């Protein structure tokens, strides 16, 4: 383990509020009584202001008024605002990345990567602002034209999780804004400064472009604030990212009022390692996906299904690589594994390790808390590897920590069955040099996940693809490809220029 120095509470708090101020946050206005701890040292960053759930009504009302103006601004002009946001994000990349590290403990390289993802989605959305295409179809009737037009939807409510405290907002907001929607954001309670800073940069972009600043709203608070947003009849789409437990509450509540929801929930992502796999590449792919972000990505690799012929060598190499992982202050150069978000995450990891042992597992690497003396209020752990005799209950559950289960297979169909035999369906990988296996894995007979990769780990998606997963992952798709359609409503138009009124399907209704 590398030597690491954990920063003091005072240093971090000051730096965090300074970074937020540079991003346009009125730091006096956001200070308050709500406790706000950094996972880096477990100490207070300085109290912040939480909104009451009634603030949701006011935010939605403002967003509704702004929507009436915004929806008829030409999409390329809306794109210009998002372009400016991307420029401001590039200018303040270090500030925002530092806030991500302070508030959720990401290592600097990943925090910068998260902000880069925001810049990338702004680029994508700018291009999209000139490509909101609808189809034209042939009519069965002479002198008729059939076409579809896409219109803005209204107010989009965004609920985000702690582990991507800024990127998830940008995926939703950059796309929603070019689509003509307005956004009310309920960020993770762990990352309010990230939220105010991101919104501060957007506000500046809106002001500079002469656009209505109320298209973007932020309401900070706990699940009660999220629930108020979910239940609000003025919110046309609720895009909610977080645990399956949260989605199980949000989905039916939104459906009950006939709203739309886009759910991005938990994952339980596996890699299959075939006998022909390039083990050097596989090793790197697994270690990044399983131990990176301290195991706190929705796409974190949680299971490896290895062919018996490579299991011993690969497990030994994984254990050796895990022993070399530099753990500590996420802002220290060279650190690869930062802290867990809070004590409950650590408790959940300990509980999962205990259950895995009861269910026949053997701990072969890590699992213990580290740096407890240097940071008694923070929770750093040595990423764990547990070999399992099969896919027991604990393996089928998502534990949001760096805990990797290793299992073996003999037959490729059995490996695919294991990959699919979990309630979640987010991301999956196959490491192989066998073209036929790769084709099967990405075919209808292969992985049942929303993300299906070959010779690359389960995490680290690019913004150009549609992101999301099946089953308990919620079915939503965000970010690239045609995910924008979820943020718009489709109208089918039949235009009759024939001067006659022929009815479809040959119906005769002459009077
Ligand atoms: P969480 O479910 O505890 O909280 C997520 C957000 O939902 C927070 O803003 C929270 O305040 C809000 N919330 C909680 N209960 C709510 C309710 N009943 N109604 C409305 N809002 C509610 O999740 P977390 O601990 O912040 O994040 C970790 C989880 O998020 C993991 O399960 C991870 O897999 C998942 N996640 C999924 C994706 C994805 O794209 N699929 C991305 C990131 C994280």
From TrEMBL:
Active site: 264
InterPro entries found in the cross-reference section: Ald_DH/histidinol_DH, Ald_DH_C, Ald_DH_CS_GLU, Ald_DH_N, Aldehyde_DH_dom, ALDH7A1-like
Domain Aldehyde dehydrogenase: 36-490
GO molecular-function term, one example from the UniProt record: aldehyde dehydrogenase (NAD+) activity
EC number(s) recorded for this UniProt protein: 1.2.1.3
Record keywords: NAD, Oxidoreductase
Subunit structure: Homotetramer.
Protein name, entry field: aldehyde dehydrogenase (NAD(+))
